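Re: weekly structure request thread

Next one in the queue (107 aa):
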Amino acid sequence: VNTVPLAKNVAIVHENPNVNSTLEIKYELDDTDIANQASGQRDQTEIRWFISNNGIDFSQNTDLNDDKLVPPFRLTVGQLWYCEITPFDGLDSGPVVRSQTVRISAV
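Done, posted below.
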C-alpha cells in the first residue's frame, strides 16, 4: 500500500521581496515510501506559480512549472505572487498546499 505524500512548511523564502530578489519556494515532503526508497519512488512534486498584476486576479505562470525559483527579471513592482505545491511520489498525489502571498516592492 502506497503512502500518500504530504507537503509541509510550504513557504516563499523572501517575505518582503523586491525587484532584485529571487523568489524561492521551500517545502518539506512527508512520504514514508520515498524515505524508505520503496519501489524506486522519488519526489516528483508539482510546483505552480501564480501572479497578479492588479491585486485581485491571479493567473498561473506556466513558464515556471516545476521551477523552485523565480528569477528577478520576472518581477515587477506591485505584483503579487504565490505558489501551489502538489506532492507526487510517482504513484499518488497528495493535497495541494498553497504558500503565503508576497508583494514585490521597489529596491
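The beta strands are 6-12, 23-30, 46-52, 59-60, 69-70, 80-86, 97-98, 102-103. The longest strand covers residues 23-30.
Next request, please.
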